[in-house]
Amino acid sequence: MFKDAVVMLGAFAVVYGLAWLRPVQLEFIANPADQAYTPRPDWYFLFLFQFLKDVGAVAPWLPEWIPAVVIPGIGMAVLFLMPWLDRSPERLWSRRPFWSGAAIVVLAAIVVLTVRGLSDVPSNITPHNAAYNTRFPKGVSPRDRALIARGKALFETGARPVACAVCHKLGGKGGAASMPLDGIGTRRTYEWLLDHTRDPQKYVPGSTMPAYPADQLPDTDLRALTDYMIQPTNPIPPLQFNNP
Predict the structure, then answer these.
(1) CATH class (in words) of the domain with range 41-121
(2) For 132-230, CATH number?
(3) 3-state SS, residue 141
(4) Choosing a second label site near 142 at 20 to 30 A (CA), which of 114, 125, 128, 188?
(5) pLDDT tens digit sequence for 79-110
Protein backbone atom coordinates (compact mmCIF):
# COMPACT_ATOMS: atom_id res chain seq x y z
CA MET A 1 0.00 0.00 0.00
CA PHE A 2 2.82 2.39 0.87
CA LYS A 3 4.61 1.70 -2.43
CA ASP A 4 1.39 2.31 -4.36
CA ALA A 5 0.92 5.64 -2.58
CA VAL A 6 4.50 6.67 -3.37
CA VAL A 7 4.07 5.82 -7.07
CA MET A 8 0.75 7.71 -7.24
CA LEU A 9 2.30 10.73 -5.52
CA GLY A 10 5.24 10.66 -7.93
CA ALA A 11 2.92 10.46 -10.95
CA PHE A 12 0.89 13.38 -9.60
CA ALA A 13 4.08 15.41 -9.09
CA VAL A 14 5.16 14.74 -12.69
CA VAL A 15 1.76 15.75 -14.10
CA TYR A 16 1.65 18.86 -11.93
CA GLY A 17 5.18 19.81 -12.96
CA LEU A 18 4.40 19.43 -16.66
CA ALA A 19 1.21 21.48 -16.26
CA TRP A 20 3.18 24.22 -14.52
CA LEU A 21 6.10 24.23 -16.96
CA ARG A 22 4.05 23.81 -20.15
CA PRO A 23 0.52 25.12 -19.54
CA VAL A 24 -2.07 24.20 -22.12
CA GLN A 25 -2.82 26.99 -24.60
CA LEU A 26 -6.56 27.24 -25.04
CA GLU A 27 -7.85 27.90 -28.51
CA PHE A 28 -10.10 30.74 -29.51
CA ILE A 29 -13.86 30.64 -29.08
CA ALA A 30 -15.42 28.23 -31.57
CA ASN A 31 -16.86 30.03 -34.56
CA PRO A 32 -18.89 28.05 -37.13
CA ALA A 33 -18.34 30.82 -39.67
CA ASP A 34 -14.60 30.09 -39.75
CA GLN A 35 -14.44 27.80 -42.79
CA ALA A 36 -10.64 27.77 -42.81
CA TYR A 37 -10.38 26.08 -39.42
CA THR A 38 -8.73 22.66 -39.51
CA PRO A 39 -9.75 20.57 -36.48
CA ARG A 40 -7.03 18.44 -34.93
CA PRO A 41 -7.32 15.99 -32.03
CA ASP A 42 -5.21 16.04 -28.90
CA TRP A 43 -1.78 14.45 -29.13
CA TYR A 44 -2.85 11.10 -27.65
CA PHE A 45 -5.29 10.60 -30.55
CA LEU A 46 -2.98 11.93 -33.24
CA PHE A 47 -1.80 8.46 -34.27
CA LEU A 48 -5.37 7.46 -35.19
CA PHE A 49 -5.89 10.80 -36.93
CA GLN A 50 -2.69 10.35 -38.96
CA PHE A 51 -3.51 6.69 -39.67
CA LEU A 52 -6.86 7.71 -41.13
CA LYS A 53 -5.17 10.34 -43.31
CA ASP A 54 -2.50 7.93 -44.55
CA VAL A 55 -4.99 5.22 -45.41
CA GLY A 56 -7.12 7.77 -47.25
CA ALA A 57 -4.07 8.90 -49.25
CA VAL A 58 -2.96 5.36 -50.15
CA ALA A 59 -6.42 3.86 -50.72
CA PRO A 60 -8.89 6.68 -51.45
CA TRP A 61 -11.41 4.11 -52.69
CA LEU A 62 -11.63 2.52 -49.23
CA PRO A 63 -14.66 3.61 -47.15
CA GLU A 64 -13.63 5.80 -44.21
CA TRP A 65 -15.44 3.64 -41.68
CA ILE A 66 -12.98 0.79 -42.27
CA PRO A 67 -9.80 2.56 -41.05
CA ALA A 68 -11.80 4.67 -38.59
CA VAL A 69 -13.83 1.89 -36.94
CA VAL A 70 -13.09 -1.61 -38.21
CA ILE A 71 -9.27 -1.69 -38.00
CA PRO A 72 -9.04 -0.05 -34.54
CA GLY A 73 -11.91 -2.29 -33.44
CA ILE A 74 -9.97 -5.39 -34.48
CA GLY A 75 -6.99 -4.16 -32.48
CA MET A 76 -9.13 -3.62 -29.38
CA ALA A 77 -10.72 -7.06 -29.83
CA VAL A 78 -7.29 -8.72 -30.00
CA LEU A 79 -6.24 -6.87 -26.86
CA PHE A 80 -9.41 -7.98 -25.08
CA LEU A 81 -8.95 -11.61 -26.17
CA MET A 82 -5.25 -11.69 -25.30
CA PRO A 83 -5.68 -13.90 -22.18
CA TRP A 84 -7.31 -16.56 -24.35
CA LEU A 85 -5.08 -16.14 -27.40
CA ASP A 86 -1.80 -16.33 -25.48
CA ARG A 87 -2.02 -19.22 -23.01
CA SER A 88 1.73 -19.58 -22.55
CA PRO A 89 2.87 -19.67 -18.89
CA GLU A 90 6.03 -17.77 -19.82
CA ARG A 91 6.31 -14.20 -18.56
CA LEU A 92 9.64 -13.13 -20.05
CA TRP A 93 9.11 -11.15 -23.24
CA SER A 94 12.14 -12.80 -24.84
CA ARG A 95 10.43 -16.19 -24.59
CA ARG A 96 7.26 -14.93 -26.25
CA PRO A 97 8.71 -13.65 -29.53
CA PHE A 98 5.47 -13.48 -31.52
CA TRP A 99 3.41 -11.37 -29.11
CA SER A 100 6.41 -9.36 -27.95
CA GLY A 101 7.31 -8.56 -31.54
CA ALA A 102 3.72 -7.62 -32.34
CA ALA A 103 3.59 -5.28 -29.33
CA ILE A 104 6.87 -3.61 -30.35
CA VAL A 105 5.63 -3.10 -33.92
CA VAL A 106 2.34 -1.59 -32.73
CA LEU A 107 4.06 0.74 -30.24
CA ALA A 108 6.59 1.83 -32.87
CA ALA A 109 3.76 2.53 -35.34
CA ILE A 110 1.93 4.62 -32.72
CA VAL A 111 5.07 6.66 -32.02
CA VAL A 112 5.81 7.23 -35.72
CA LEU A 113 2.22 8.20 -36.53
CA THR A 114 2.10 10.56 -33.55
CA VAL A 115 5.33 12.29 -34.58
CA ARG A 116 4.09 12.62 -38.16
CA GLY A 117 0.80 14.01 -36.92
CA LEU A 118 2.59 16.62 -34.81
CA SER A 119 4.79 17.70 -37.72
CA ASP A 120 1.97 17.76 -40.28
CA VAL A 121 0.82 21.35 -39.81
CA PRO A 122 -2.17 22.37 -41.98
CA SER A 123 -1.37 24.88 -44.70
CA ASN A 124 -4.41 27.06 -43.95
CA ILE A 125 -3.40 28.05 -40.44
CA THR A 126 -5.78 30.50 -38.78
CA PRO A 127 -5.62 32.04 -35.31
CA HIS A 128 -8.14 29.38 -34.26
CA ASN A 129 -5.81 26.56 -35.21
CA ALA A 130 -4.07 24.43 -32.62
CA ALA A 131 -0.79 25.11 -34.37
CA TYR A 132 -1.27 28.86 -33.93
CA ASN A 133 1.07 29.10 -30.95
CA THR A 134 3.98 27.68 -32.96
CA ARG A 135 3.97 30.80 -35.15
CA PHE A 136 5.27 32.94 -32.30
CA PRO A 137 8.94 33.40 -31.34
CA LYS A 138 10.19 31.26 -28.49
CA GLY A 139 9.15 32.69 -25.16
CA VAL A 140 6.29 34.79 -26.56
CA SER A 141 2.76 33.50 -26.03
CA PRO A 142 -0.38 34.85 -27.71
CA ARG A 143 -2.11 34.44 -24.37
CA ASP A 144 0.32 36.72 -22.58
CA ARG A 145 -1.82 39.39 -20.97
CA ALA A 146 0.92 42.00 -21.01
CA LEU A 147 1.37 41.46 -24.75
CA ILE A 148 -2.34 41.91 -25.42
CA ALA A 149 -2.45 44.95 -23.15
CA ARG A 150 0.40 46.44 -25.16
CA GLY A 151 -1.53 45.75 -28.36
CA LYS A 152 -4.65 47.39 -26.94
CA ALA A 153 -2.67 50.50 -26.06
CA LEU A 154 -1.18 50.64 -29.55
CA PHE A 155 -4.58 50.19 -31.16
CA GLU A 156 -6.36 52.83 -29.12
CA THR A 157 -3.79 55.45 -28.17
CA GLY A 158 -0.55 54.38 -29.81
CA ALA A 159 1.96 56.94 -30.98
CA ARG A 160 1.02 58.30 -34.39
CA PRO A 161 0.75 57.03 -36.99
CA VAL A 162 0.18 53.66 -35.28
CA ALA A 163 -3.14 54.39 -33.51
CA CYS A 164 -5.52 52.11 -35.45
CA ALA A 165 -8.62 53.38 -33.63
CA VAL A 166 -8.39 56.66 -35.55
CA CYS A 167 -9.76 54.87 -38.64
CA HIS A 168 -10.92 51.43 -37.49
CA LYS A 169 -13.63 50.44 -35.05
CA LEU A 170 -13.24 47.43 -32.77
CA GLY A 171 -15.76 46.43 -30.13
CA GLY A 172 -17.87 49.50 -30.80
CA LYS A 173 -14.98 51.90 -30.22
CA GLY A 174 -12.92 53.76 -32.79
CA GLY A 175 -13.30 55.68 -36.01
CA ALA A 176 -15.46 54.95 -39.02
CA ALA A 177 -13.08 56.04 -41.79
CA SER A 178 -12.25 52.44 -42.65
CA MET A 179 -13.67 48.94 -42.19
CA PRO A 180 -14.42 47.68 -38.66
CA LEU A 181 -12.09 44.98 -37.38
CA ASP A 182 -14.57 42.96 -35.34
CA GLY A 183 -13.92 39.27 -35.94
CA ILE A 184 -10.96 39.96 -38.23
CA GLY A 185 -9.23 36.84 -36.91
CA THR A 186 -11.96 34.67 -38.44
CA ARG A 187 -11.54 36.21 -41.88
CA ARG A 188 -7.77 36.53 -42.23
CA THR A 189 -4.81 34.41 -41.22
CA TYR A 190 -2.34 35.64 -38.66
CA GLU A 191 0.43 35.86 -41.26
CA TRP A 192 -1.82 37.84 -43.61
CA LEU A 193 -2.52 40.41 -40.91
CA LEU A 194 1.17 40.81 -40.10
CA ASP A 195 2.19 41.24 -43.73
CA HIS A 196 -0.76 43.47 -44.59
CA THR A 197 0.11 45.87 -41.80
CA ARG A 198 3.64 46.11 -43.13
CA ASP A 199 2.55 46.72 -46.74
CA PRO A 200 -1.21 47.28 -47.32
CA GLN A 201 -0.68 48.11 -51.01
CA LYS A 202 0.58 44.59 -51.59
CA TYR A 203 -2.85 43.16 -50.78
CA VAL A 204 -5.20 46.07 -51.48
CA PRO A 205 -3.92 48.25 -54.33
CA GLY A 206 -4.96 51.84 -53.80
CA SER A 207 -5.47 51.37 -50.06
CA THR A 208 -5.38 54.58 -48.04
CA MET A 209 -3.85 52.74 -45.09
CA PRO A 210 -0.21 53.74 -44.63
CA ALA A 211 2.55 51.15 -44.48
CA TYR A 212 4.20 50.45 -41.14
CA PRO A 213 7.83 49.39 -41.64
CA ALA A 214 9.85 47.92 -38.81
CA ASP A 215 11.46 51.25 -37.93
CA GLN A 216 7.99 52.67 -37.15
CA LEU A 217 6.40 49.52 -35.72
CA PRO A 218 8.84 46.92 -34.32
CA ASP A 219 8.02 43.24 -34.74
CA THR A 220 7.14 42.82 -31.05
CA ASP A 221 4.65 45.68 -31.22
CA LEU A 222 3.21 44.39 -34.49
CA ARG A 223 2.57 40.98 -32.95
CA ALA A 224 1.11 42.55 -29.82
CA LEU A 225 -1.22 44.66 -31.94
CA THR A 226 -2.31 41.66 -34.01
CA ASP A 227 -2.82 39.55 -30.88
CA TYR A 228 -5.13 42.19 -29.48
CA MET A 229 -7.18 42.45 -32.67
CA ILE A 230 -7.82 38.70 -32.89
CA GLN A 231 -8.18 37.86 -29.19
CA PRO A 232 -11.34 35.86 -28.39
CA THR A 233 -12.88 38.60 -26.26
CA ASN A 234 -13.24 40.82 -29.31
CA PRO A 235 -16.64 40.58 -30.98
CA ILE A 236 -17.27 38.23 -33.87
CA PRO A 237 -19.93 39.31 -36.36
CA PRO A 238 -23.12 37.21 -36.23
CA LEU A 239 -23.70 34.63 -38.91
CA GLN A 240 -25.58 35.83 -41.95
CA PHE A 241 -28.07 33.42 -43.51
CA ASN A 242 -29.47 33.83 -46.99
CA ASN A 243 -33.22 33.74 -47.36
CA PRO A 244 -34.45 30.49 -48.96
Answers:
(1) mainly alpha
(2) 1.10.760.10
(3) coil
(4) 114
(5) 888 888 888 787 787 888 888 888 899 999 99
